[in-house]
Amino acid sequence: MAAALFLRPHEATLQDMQVVALRELKDHLSEYVRLVRTGERLLITSHGEVVAELRSTEPEDAEDAPLGLRELVRRGTARGLVRNDPSQYRTYERALATTTAQELLDWDRSDR
Predict the structure, then answer these.
(1) Does the residue 102 lie in any domain?
(2) Full-prediction pTM beyond 0.70?
(3) CATH at 43
(4) What does the pLDDT look like over 7-54, one tens digit per residue?
(5) In angstroms, rounded to a whole number, what is the distance separating the alpha carbons of residues 14 and 11?
(6) Which of 34, 50, 70, 89 is the most exposed place for a label (fewest CB within 10 A)?
(7) The pLDDT value given to residue 10
(8) What is the pLDDT of residue 60?
(9) Contact 35/18 with Cβ under 8 angstroms?
């Protein structure tokens, strides 16, 4: 594993990355793609020199997500980094008729 330093205007993070030789990547591509899908980032080397980084695609605003959330997604504990879409939530019908709190209290206390 190699550590890579990522600089952003107000933060720097150090992340471990797996280093993979190009020949090894070609021989076991599907295995490494599975790793990348879980959020792992790979540094690809050719003749000992880093030539590329292989990582999963992220939504454009993923870099704005909190570091903790990005780490949970990388581990597979959380999914997403997508914008909130209210249409994805279930809607529920009102369980009670529209009434006031005083009417509910009166109804509840009527047995006493």
Answers:
(1) no
(2) no
(3) 3.40.1620.10
(4) 544 444 455 678 999 999 999 999 999 888 887 889 999 998 999 989
(5) 10
(6) 89
(7) 47
(8) 52
(9) yes
pLDDT value at residue 99: 81
Q: Range of 58's domain?
A: 2-84
Q: Could you write out the three-class secondary structure of the chain?
A: CEEEEEEECCEEEEEEEEEEEHHHHHHCHHHHHHHHHCCCCEEEEECCEEEEEECCCCCHHHHHCCHHHHHHHHHCCCCCCCCCCHHHCCCCCCCCCCCCHHHHHHHHHCCC
Q: Is the pLDDT of residue 69 over 70?
A: yes
At residue 26's C-alpha, the angle toward residues 25 and 32, to 5°, is: 40
Q: How many domains does the chain have?
A: 1
Residues 6+ apart with CB under 8 A from 100: none
